[in-house]
Amino acid sequence: MEDIYDVIILGAGPAGLSAGIYASRAKLKTLILNEGTVGGQVILTHEIANYPGVETTNGFKLVNTMKKQAKEFGCIIKANLNVTGINLLNKIKEIKVNGSDIYKGKTVILALGGKPRSLNIPGEDDFKGRGVSYCATCDGEFFTGKEVVVVGGGNSALEESVSLAKYASKLTVVHQFDHFQAQRHYIDMAKNNPKINFIMGSELRGIEGEASVKKVKIENLTTGQISELNTDGVFIFIGYSANVDKVKDTITLNSRSEIVVDNNMKTNIEGVYAAGDCIEKRYRQVTTAVADGTIAALSVSDYLMNSTVSKEAILN
Question: What are the E-state strand segments in the chain?
């Protein structure tokens, strides 16, 4: 009989790993496929102090514990793959990787995560890796003793600004509004740091340099005046967009290109569920991703117990 998994999970971030833990613990034959390194965006987080039951940890340690738990329950994890085809419309779903290998499952959980949003301004693409970054944990040390600009006004922008201030000699936060969207804790941390300055009600209009970043152009949104600020680096933290390019033609998305799910994490396609940062929701935290993955796995378990998909898979 052809090898068919009970559930294939696309993505190995907190949502995907949590789904893997719950599905495999429920004795479902579970496979996680991941295009990059196991862990997703959270592995870049230098400190996690608000995960219930854990006083403090970092993203790398947290996801590696999740990975270990999933594998101990029997979950199979394959990472660093290239997903080249996704067929969700048949009773038995098919995922093609690396152009030739095909994995089949009775159900699929999409835990595709997100990617950093871009400013889409002149110079941004040109200087990626040469002064433009989206990860303070990855690149902060390269800017020791240098001046940097941070773009954004949410939790991530201010938290990462405080982290970057450990290395940079001076840091300027540029935010489009006259107020922050971050929680008070993060605002206070940034404002109380003597290295951090703020330019509010403004947006970057360009990034310039030679071999690396040398300056940015900033527009005051009230006056329209353009000014220049010398800097050695630009860190951009303006949120994430869902990684839905490979399923956008089959899955129902909202106006922000996020996967629409119901309370059980079910999509518009029978047997297909979604969880984590790729779905339509207001809050994006590790804890909410874990909850999404848990609900998706429990829903899959219930679906398989009460549907005919297992019998049809054997007959066909």
Answer: 5-10, 30-33, 76-78, 83-87, 93-97, 101-110, 114-116, 132-133, 147-151, 170-174, 196-199, 202-209, 213-220, 226-230, 233-236, 240-242, 272-274
